[in-house]
C-alpha cells in the first residue's frame, strides 16, 4: 500500500511541475519610464482650487503604450511626476517616437510654493535629466 501512495505522490508531483511551466512563448510586457516633454503649468495656483494640468510624454516606439501618471510626494511642497508606459515586444515595432498627452488633476492644499520634478530623458553620459518647476500659491 505504501508503494502505491509514493507512486501516486511522484506522479502528482510530475504532473504539477509540468502544468505550471513558466516557459510561456507569448510576448513579454515590461514597464518603462517615459520621457515627459512638456507640462503646461499655470503661472500660479490659488489655494484650495483644483487644476487640470496637461502632461505631454513621448512613446519611444510602436510597442510602447501609455499606462499611467504617478505622482510621488517626498515632501509637503514637492511633487515628482512620472509617466509610465508598458512595452510589449511583438516583433514588428516601429521606431517612430510619438507623443501623447494626459491630464494631471492637482488640488492645491498648502499655501506655499510647489516644486514639481519630472524626467526629461538622459544626457550624453546616460544620466537622467530631471527638470524642476516652481509654481507659487496665492491666497
TrEMBL record:
Claim: Signal is one of the keywords in the record: yes
Signal peptide: 1-23
Keywords assigned by UniProt, alphabetized: Signal
Domain of life assignment: Bacteria
Name this protein carries in UniProt: Lipoprotein
Source species: Robiginitalea biformata (strain ATCC BAA-864 / DSM 15991 / KCTC 12146 / HTCC2501)
Lineage: Bacteria, Pseudomonadati, Bacteroidota, Flavobacteriia, Flavobacteriales
Amino acid at each position: 500500500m505504501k508503494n502505491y501512495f509514493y507512486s501516486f505522490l511522484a506522479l502528482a508531483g510530475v504532473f504539477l511541475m509540468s502544468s505550471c511551466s513558466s516557459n510561456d512563448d507569448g510576448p513579454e510586457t515590461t514597464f518603462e519610464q517615459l520621457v515627459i516633454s512638456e507640462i503646461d503649468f499655470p503661472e500660479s495656483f490659488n489655494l484650495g482650487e483644483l487644476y487640470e494640468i496637461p502632461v505631454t510624454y513621448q512613446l519611444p516606439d510602436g510597442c510602447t503604450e501609455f499606462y499611467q501618471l504617478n505622482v510621488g510626494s517626498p515632501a509637503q511642497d514637492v511633487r515628482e511626476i512620472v509617466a509610465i508606459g508598458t512595452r510589449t515586444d511583438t516583433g514588428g515595432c516601429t521606431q517612430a517616437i510619438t507623443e501623447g498627452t494626459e491630464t494631471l488633476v492637482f488640488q492645491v492644499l498648502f499655501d506655499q510654493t510647489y516644486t514639481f520634478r519630472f524626467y526629461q530623458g538622459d544626457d550624453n553620459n546616460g544620466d537622467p535629466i530631471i527638470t524642476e518647476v516652481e509654481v507659487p500659491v496665492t491666497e
